[in-house]
Write a structure and sequence with these properties.
Elements: H1 2-13, H2 19-38, E1 43-49, H3 68-76, E2 78-80, E3 83-84, H4 90-99, H5 103-106, H6 140-146, E4 150-155, E5 175-178, H7 184-190, H8 196-209, E6 215-220, H9 232-239, H10 250-272, E7 279-285, H11 307-310, E8 311-312, E9 315-317, E10 326-328, E11 332-333, H12 337-344, H13 361-364, E12 374-379, E13 400-405, E14 408-413, H14 414-419, E15 432-436, H15 452-469
Parallel strand pairs: 1-6, 1-7, 2-10, 3-11, 4-5, 4-6
Antiparallel strand pairs: 2-9, 3-8, 7-9, 12-13, 13-14, 14-15
Helix pairs in contact: 1-2, 8-10, 9-10
């Protein structure tokens, strides 16, 4: 500070002011400068991994994978043990995150189509899917831009197309670097699996270019989505490693490790530029893990609404606000990120804009509860490809609406509710599953007919939410059910999400 004062005194003295006056003015300049630097709005960095299950990181208990950079981030910040995606697969989850709205409000329920699987096994007609995030939705990027932030998105978008004007640049991002995964030929040429380093290096360059102004950076990795890809040197690293009791896929471990490397490069750039003390970093995933990566003891995988399909690793680091090495058990969901980010930016929600989540800042500061007590999911369609943990051997998921409140989780299945007597026959029609996640994290013991008061409490709240959000239930009988198989609509064009 003394050096700064002397420089300013020398400059002011040329104006022939007396030395005491020059000294006083110099002090005021320095104080004002330092005050401005200290009040710069916090930067916000969101790192979103694709298909990373809850048990796919070291800090969440993986018994095989190595994620040293992510583990270090967890030690520097707060771990959320009950964090959820708002949908079981990519597009709807990302739509919830960017819009701050639950699925009934934006209408994106699945990837491509909600009619996924054998039509003659669907008892009800699924609610049609929307594949693009509507341009009229006021996104989190638009809100942050209007709060004075430079905004950027790198990696996987999955919410629109250039033709429909629904790409990141159309939805509030000043820098739009959305692209699909590399082909096998591109990967071989660049030695960059899933574009991990292309995404990371682009994000680092953006930070470098905007280090003197507040920025909102959305880093959206294609890893760890299928297909399984990693550099040969990373594959070699795991070649002779003993596998875990539950997780044993060495190539998947390599891809996971490669992703962790990218995260480490990004965090190092933030630190090297001296921005870590004024930057909120969020690390999480868009939905549950893949069958190639068991999530034991959680039940199920991506596409399901058991916890294996929606519970996520989640870290928040914000030096000076979040105490390092802490944990929080409050159930949170990714629609909470939008209100959290604008809260950090010092901005209120735009008048008339619906946000279904709640800011997490009070939890960051050590709080142990939010005003809202329940979180919800709504999926009025069918997903093919049953996996271990599925409710039946025909579909990963059938139409279902879900609520979690405290330790309790209730799932309302549309088929039985609509066609098998609904509330009147609730004790026998299997329309409802109720689990106590504290005592039964694997969701194996249906308590619906054991704790009827809790069942009825959650069901009443869920039905009220359905009415409030105008959530459409798949309740109309399907005329093709039980008949000869009819040809499905094409639902899987070529691309990075063909296995969704």
């Amino acid at each position: 500070m003394k050096k700064q004062v002397n420089i300013i005194i020398a400059q002011i003295s040329r104006t022939r002011l007396s030395l005491p006056i020059a000294f006083f003015i110099a002090i005021m300049f320095v104080v004002a400068f330092q005050s401005g630097a200290q009040t710069k709005k916090p930067n916000v960095v969101l790192i979103l991994i694709d298909d990373m299950g809850y048990k796919d990181a070291g800090f969440t208990g993986s018994d095989f994978y190595e994620t040293p950079n992510i583990n270090a981030l967890a030690k520097q910040g707060m771990i959320f043990n009950n964090a959820y995606a708002a949908a079981g697969n990519c597009a709807p989850s990302r739509a919830c995150l960017i819009s701050g709205e639950y699925t009934p409000r934006h209408g994106i329920y699945a990837v491509y189509n909600t009619e996924r699987g054998p039509i003659n096994q669907m008892r009800t007609i699924p609610i049609p899917n929307t594949s693009k995030l509507r341009p009229d939705i006021y996104t989190v990027a638009e809100a942050m831009r209007d709060a004075g932030y430079k905004t950027a998105m790198f990696g996987k978008w999955h919410l629109g197309s250039e033709k429909s004007n629904t790409m990141p640049a159309d939805q509030g991002f000043d820098v739009d670097s959305a692209y699909s995964v590399p082909s096998k030929e591109e990967m071989a040429k660049t030695n960059d699996p899933k574009w991990i380093y292309r995404i990371t290096n682009g994000a680092c360059e953006f930070i470098e270019n905007n280090k003197d102004k507040p920025f909102f950076l959305y880093v959206s990795h294609h890893a760890t989505h299928m297909p399984i890809q990693a550099r040969e040197e990373m594959v070699e690293k795991f070649k002779d490693r003993p596998t875990g009791k539950f997780q044993s896929n060495k190539k998947y471990a390599s891809m996971n490790g490669q992703m962790d490397d990218g995260v480490g490069i990004l965090l190092k750039k933030i630190k090297d530029l001296g921005l870590d003390s004024n930057t909120l970093v969020i690390f999480t995933s868009d939905n549950g893990g893949l069958p190639q990566s068991p999530q034991t003891p959680l039940r199920g995988f991506k596409g399901m609404y058991y916890d294996g399909g929606i519970r996520e690793p989640f870290i928040a680091r914000w030096p000076g606000v979040i105490k390092p090495g802490t944990q929080n058990n409050v159930p949170i969901i990714n629609v909470d990120l939008y209100p959290t980010f604008i809260d950090v930016a010092g901005r209120k929600n735009k008048a008339g804009n619906i946000l279904d989540g709640e800011s997490l800042v009070k939890l960051f500061k050590g709080g142990d509860q939010l005003e809202r007590k329940s979180i919800f999911w709504h999926f009025p369609g069918y997903l093919d490809g049953p996996d271990p943990g599925s409710r039946d051997n025909k579909f990963r998921s059938r139409p279902v609406t879900t609520i979690r409140k405290g330790d309790w989780k209730l799932m309302l299945y549309h088929e039985e509710w609509a066609l098998d007597g609904g509330l009147k026959n609730i004790d026998t029609n299997k329309a409802v599953e109720l689990f106590n996640l504290k005592n039964d994290v694997s969701e194996q013991k249906n308590m619906a007919n054991i704790n009827k008061p809790k069942r009825d409490e959650l069901l009443a709240e869920l039905l009220a939410w359905i009415k409030k959000t105008d959530a459409k239930l798949a309740y109309e009988p399907n005329p093709h059910y039980g008949k000869e198989q009819v040809k499905n609509k094409p639902i899987k064009p070529k691309g990075d999400d063909v296995d969704e």
